[in-house]
């Protein structure tokens, strides 16, 4: 290895978004013909690394080298020209165009300066054959393909660009087992022809099957690069967790199973994302949804709130079955439901509207007076919430967009607390907010639970799940794989079940 | 074999417009006292081709998920300028035509430049520039008039071989020389990509900015071709605000009837041509059935609503209700 030169090299790379460091002082390189796995928890800095390598963002500090020459990619196009091609997790296909169009989007075969439709079709057929997707017709529209086929088309598109470095970011997450084998085959073939592969995956099994070397990231720092087999799975997990400062969490009550069930879900299913999910949520209980990002936790919350169409299975609230027809119906369930959405800017707040208007939006029917909305009642209710949640705002009339992220999130919480919900669904509510506000939210959650609310809490932060939840349901591939509570609720168990490693494998 | 199936699926919107037009036009001709004579066809074509060209112009920004509210004004501006400079000998007239096309291209380029580099919304940009272009029209031709080169005008609004309406030939040539090469060029493809999903297009290395610039510029060119044809029909120019406004709105209607999605990334200028023909034929139908012309807006509205409803079926397939709002 030492006699060869790396094709792609990052030196002393740092990236900050606002005040938050996503990557700190990272040295990283990929050699031709090497398959390198990149490991780390959610938010460890893996995706930032990929974005920098593939020209999507600029590093704040540090330099990128291609074959020893310094480069500065201004766009993904430039990175592709330099041979760095990425298969993104969020698909980069154009849904309204045909497969053939997508595969040749940048450099289509031409005839007299115009796109040669027939040549393009043949090129598409050849590329599809290479990834074993002969069943996909080149003239099919991408939007009509199932997700697993789209992902294969995405891989075919990357191959069509003759990569020197191919980056696969969770590229197999939506694939069937057969396709995964095929992708392995393609990767090994590319390796033989000297292509360097950067492989980001949460699946330990894949990494063991494929990788030559692996690099672990944690909190934006590179921890170690090692050759396969040099570290046990145990040691790798230890590296990924690290020992970090823990937050202060409010004390948990004694576990109790005799409290009444607030919400009972049975055999819920929706596409690939939710598969046969059954669980109970009791009054006064905080139940966590754990697991890796994107295993169906969000969809589960959306399904319970009635946002998804065609969910099968049954949901009973306070013992009475409810239909999942939409947020309005969920708000009027026997125990009113509330969902704190994941993206407060798009799904939670009307940014240009005032703090007051945002807070009372869901509870307006209770604030009606004789002539429409009663201003006194409204102001009083808002003031109660502002005091209770300690929202820092210059004025109740100030637009929400003027508030800090943490205070914006408090406004979203206040909006739903005004509806006096009996069941609260939280979708990663502490993402991107400061430590102080986080602790206030933890305290508030426990307070609400003690008053009898049932809380279902999805978080990508494992420490938070352990600190806040009475029990945690670990989701993998749309199924609940394991329930952790009390003594078993540890970071190690959480990560192991999130990676879907069972005890026997770990011993091996 | 299965290639045909896909071709059919891709062009369903266009085919619907073609069938609708064919049915309406057959109805019109079979009730016309003279039947389908070259004179009847030429009159119909001269009117329809104007809207068809403006609708083609509108199609390009719409494909990139934009909108051009200035097409009607560029159309009128080209008419006014042409009535001043397409005069004199045939040679001078041809030079004038080239100049009008360049002015149209410039007007479109300005729209595109503001949208791309100014990052303003297309609707508001073209609302403002449209007012400017109409202002220029008034400046050039405060009152109706002009003395247009009549040899060119007669040639392009008469009949070829005494049978085929020349305006249709002009439209055909525009399709052949502008639309088809555009559709098959990398930048034309890029326009569809931008309209389909701008982020993904950027991530795939598609030339996003160039594609938008070209779409608006070509829209200006096509609108000015329409303006020239209007000039040849009337032998004069007129800075008419009602004409500019009506053509802008009807161009959007024609685009939609022709199966192009206002959300971008889907459709074709061919569809818009037939959409324009459909709108035009409504007027003719009212005429042959002796109905008051005042009914025309009502019928146009009904046809437009029906056409838009056809595109609404996708909503039935949405699985995540949040997608209804995106």
Q: How are the SSEs ordered, and which strands pair?
A:
The complex is a heterodimer of chains A (508) and B (326).
Chain A: E1 8-17, E2 20-30, E3 35-39, H1 46-53, E4 61-66, E5 69-71, H2 76-81, E6 84-87, H3 99-103, E7 110-111, E8 114-115, H4 117-130, H5 147-159, E9 165-169, H6 177-192, E10 196-200, H7 204-210, E11 213-218, E12 221-227, H8 233-241, E13 261-270, E14 274-282, E15 286-290, H9 297-304, E16 312-317, E17 320-322, H10 327-331, E18 337-340, H11 344-348, H12 355-360, E19 368-369, E20 372-373, H13 375-389, H14 405-417, E21 423-427, H15 435-450, E22 454-458, H16 462-468, E23 471-476, E24 479-485, H17 491-498, H18 503-507
Parallel strand pairs in A: 3-10, 3-11, 6-9, 9-10, 15-22, 15-23, 18-21, 21-22
Antiparallel strand pairs in A: 1-2, 1-4, 4-5, 7-8, 11-12, 13-14, 13-16, 16-17, 19-20, 23-24
Helix pairs in contact in A: 13-14
Chain B: H1 2-10, H2 12-30, H3 38-63, H4 71-85, H5 90-117, H6 122-140, H7 150-157, E1 159-160, E2 164-165, H8 166-183, H9 186-196, H10 198-203, H11 208-234, H12 241-257, H13 269-288, H14 296-310
Antiparallel strand pairs in B: 1-2
Helix pairs in contact in B: 2-13, 3-8, 3-9, 3-11, 3-12, 3-13, 4-5, 4-6, 4-11, 4-12, 5-6, 5-11, 7-11, 9-11, 12-13, 12-14, 13-14
Give a brief rundown of this model:
The complex is a heterodimer of chains A (508) and B (326). Chain A is an alpha/beta fold. Chain A contains 18 helices and 24 strands.
Overview of this protein structure:
The complex is a heterodimer of chains A (508) and B (326). Chain A is built from 18 helices and 24 strands. Chain A is an alpha/beta fold and 508 residues long. Chain A has 2 domains: 8-241, Rossmann fold (3-Layer(aba) Sandwich), CATH 3.40.50; 261-507, Rossmann fold (3-Layer(aba) Sandwich), CATH 3.40.50.300. A 6-stranded mixed β-sheet of chain A has the order 6-9-10-3-11-12, sandwiched between helices. Chain A has a 6-stranded mixed β-sheet with strand order 18-21-22-15-23-24, sandwiched between helices. A 4-stranded antiparallel β-sheet of chain A has the order 2-1-4-5, with helices on one face. In chain A, α13 packs across α14 (405-417). The longest helix of chain A has 16 residues, at 177-192. The model of chain A is unreliable at 503-508 (pLDDT under 50). With 326 residues, chain B is mostly helical. Chain B has one domain (14-308): Orthogonal Bundle (ABC transporter involved in vitamin B12 uptake, BtuC). Helix content of chain B is 73%, strand content 1%. Chain B is built from 14 helices and 2 strands. Chain B has helices at 2-10, 12-30, 38-63, 71-85, 90-117, 122-140, 150-157, 166-183, 186-196, 198-203, 208-234, 241-257, 269-288, 296-310, and strands at 159-160, 164-165. A two-stranded antiparallel sheet of chain B has the order 1-2. In chain B, a hairpin with a 3-residue loop joins β1 and β2 (164-165). In chain B, α3 packs across α13, α4 (71-85) runs antiparallel to α5 and α13 runs antiparallel to α14. The longest helix of chain B is centred in the N-terminal third of the chain and has 28 residues, at 90-117. Chain B is globular, with a radius of gyration of 20 Å. The mean pLDDT of chain B is 90. Chains A and B meet through α2 and β8 of A and α1, α9 and α10 of B.
């Amino acid at each position: 290895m030492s006699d060869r030169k790396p094709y792609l090299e990052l030196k002393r790379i740092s990236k900050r978004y606002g005040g938050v460091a996503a990557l700190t002082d990272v040295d990283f390189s990929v050699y031709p013909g090497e398959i390198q796995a990149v490991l780390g928890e959610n938010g460890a800095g893996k995706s930032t690394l990929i974005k920098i390598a593939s020209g999507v963002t600029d590093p704040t500090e540090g330099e990128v080298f291609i074959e020893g020459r310094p480069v500065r990619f201004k766009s993904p196009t430039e990175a592709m020209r330099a041979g760095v091609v990425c298969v993104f997790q969020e698909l980069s296909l154009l849904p309204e165009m045909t497969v053939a169009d997508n595969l040749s989007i940048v450099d289509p075969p031409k005839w007299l300066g115009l796109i040669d439709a027939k040549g393009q079709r043949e090129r598409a057929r050849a590329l599809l054959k290479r990834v074993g997707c002969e069943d996909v017709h080149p003239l099919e529209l991408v939007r009509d393909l199932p997700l697993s086929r789209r992902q294969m088309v995405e891989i075919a598109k990357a191959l069509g660009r003759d990569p020197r470095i191919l980056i696969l970011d969770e590229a197999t997450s939506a694939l069937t087992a057969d396709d995964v084998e095929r992708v392995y085959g393609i990767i090994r073939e590319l390796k033989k022809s000297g292509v360097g592969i950067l492989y980001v995956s949460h699946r330990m099994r894949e990494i063991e099957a494929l990788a030559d070397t692996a690099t672990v990231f944690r909190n934006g720092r590179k921890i170690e690069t090692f050759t396969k087999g040099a570290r046990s799975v145990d040691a790798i997990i230890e590296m990924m967790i690290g020992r970090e400062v823990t937050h202060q969490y409010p004390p948990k009550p004694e576990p109790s199973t005799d409290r009444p069930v607030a919400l009972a879900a049975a055999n819920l299913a929706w596409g690939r994302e939710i598969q046969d999910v059954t669980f109970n949520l009791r009054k006064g209980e905080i139940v966590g949804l754990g697991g890796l990002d994107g295993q169906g936790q969000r969809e589960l919350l959306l399904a319970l709130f009635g946002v998804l169409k065609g969910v099968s299975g049954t949901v009973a609230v306070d013992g009475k079955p409810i239909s999942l027809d939409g947020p309005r119906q969920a708000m009027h369930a026997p125990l009113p439901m509330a969902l704190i959405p994941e993206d407060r800017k798009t799904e939670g707040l009307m940014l240009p509207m005032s703090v007051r208007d945002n807070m009372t939006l869901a509870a307006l029917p209770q604030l009606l007076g004789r002539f429409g909305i009663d201003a006194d009642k409204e102001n009083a209710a808002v003031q109660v919430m502002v005091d209770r949640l300690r929202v820092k705002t210059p004025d109740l009339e100030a637009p929400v967009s003027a508030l800090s992220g943490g205070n914006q999130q408090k406004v979203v919480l206040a909006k739903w607390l005004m509806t006096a919900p009996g069941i609260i669904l939280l979708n990663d509510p502490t993402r991107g907010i400061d430590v102080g506000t986080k602790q206030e939210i933890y305290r508030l959650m426990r307070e609400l639970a003690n008053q009898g609310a049932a809380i279902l809490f999805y978080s990508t932060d494992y420490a938070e799940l352990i600190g806040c939840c009475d029990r945690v349901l670990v989701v993998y591939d749309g199924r609940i794989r394991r329930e952790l509570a009390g003594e078993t609720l540890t970071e190690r168990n959480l990560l192991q079940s999130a990676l879907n490693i069972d005890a026997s494998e770990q011993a091996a | 074999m299965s290639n045909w199936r896909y071709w059919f699926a891709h062009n369903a919107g266009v085919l619907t417009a073609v069938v609708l037009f064919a049915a309406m036009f057959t109805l019109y001709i079979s009730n016309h006292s003279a039947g389908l004579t070259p004179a009847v066809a030429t009159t119909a074509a001269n009117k329809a081709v104007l809207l068809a060209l403006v609708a083609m112009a509108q199609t390009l920004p719409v494909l990139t998920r934009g909108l051009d509210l200035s097409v009607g004004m560029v159309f009128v501006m080209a008419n006014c300028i042409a009535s001043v400079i397409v005069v004199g000998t045939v040679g001078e007239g041809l030079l004038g035509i080239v100049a009008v096309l360049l002015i149209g291209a410039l007007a479109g380029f300005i729209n595109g430049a503001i949208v791309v580099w100014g990052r303003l919304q297309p609707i508001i940009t073209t609302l403002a520039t449209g007012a400017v272009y109409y202002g220029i029209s008034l400046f050039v031709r405060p009152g109706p008039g002009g003395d247009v080169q009549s040899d060119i005008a007669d040639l392009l609004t008469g009949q070829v071989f005494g049978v085929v309406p020349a305006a249709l030939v002009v439209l055909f040539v525009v399709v052949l020389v502008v639309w088809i090469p555009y559709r098959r060029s990398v930048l034309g493809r890029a326009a569809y990509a931008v309209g389909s999903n701008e982020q993904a297009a950027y991530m795939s290395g598609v030339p996003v900015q160039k594609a938008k610039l070209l779409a608006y510029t070509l829209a200006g060119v096509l609108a000015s071709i329409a303006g020239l044809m209007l000039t040849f029909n009337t032998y004069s120019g007129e800075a008419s605000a009602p004409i500019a406004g009506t053509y802008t709105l009807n161009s959007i209607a024609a685009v939609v009837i022709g199966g192009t999605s206002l959300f971008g990334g889907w459709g074709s200028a061919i569809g818009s041509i037939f959409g324009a023909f459909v709108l035009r034929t409504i007027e003719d139908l009212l005429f042959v059935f002796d109905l008051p012309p005042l009914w025309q807006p009502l019928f146009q509205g009904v046809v437009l609503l029906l056409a838009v409803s056809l595109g609404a079926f996708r909503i039935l397939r949405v699985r995540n209700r949040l997608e209804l709002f995106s």
